[in-house]
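Sequence in, structure out.
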Amino acid sequence: MKTIVCVLLGILVFTGTAHAQQTYDDRHRISVTGESLVNVAPDRVIVTFGVDTRDMVLDTAKRQNDAIVKKALAAIKAMGIVDRDIQTDRLSIEQRFESPSGRQVFAGFTIRNMFVVSLSDPAKVDALITAALDSGVNYLLNVEFQTTELKKYREQARELATRAAREKAEKMAAALGETVGQALQIDEVGQNSGVSYYSSWSSGWGAGNRGNAGTSQNVVGVSSGDTVDTVALGKVGVRASVRVVFELIRR
């Protein structure tokens, strides 16, 4: 029995040593990152509006809000925008209090209504905003440009980022009198989420007085897990970043 145990231990030690020898890689390496940005003309725009009405009587404030929203939606639909591209986002009712003499005094009710319009024609953005504000809408909360062909442009950005990594590695190696061999490892650098219109307009909502048009615009956005930027007027940028480890060959 002791002989068998010794034999098994000998096999395990031999196997572990052989495995360590197989995985050890003493090649010289160079690690670089490559980045790229693909500019894309948007083919969809998401516009978020808000209506804020206030009155001492709850029913009055609610009726005023409903009237403005109804008028705005009618004007928007008159532009040829269909119901499926208009979505009521949130309705809130709040009590307001003021402290003129150090004690809280009831100052009435605030009704806030939000709705989102999706445009497949970016050229209509100005007309849409004008129609909504002329109807009594008092907040323009967010304008978000998007592309529906994100996958295609994301793949382009990744390819360009990978090429950029190779070029960077070759130039760095050349400065040291060395050359770059095959890629040993490649990873996509973690992408931040695109800007969501929820987080974009929430910070500006409720600011200002009744009748003032808030224009807190965050002109960005592809909510797909990819980093995006507004890089130029009327453009959306799809960014990619990769990290590549190459073999470094000494001359």
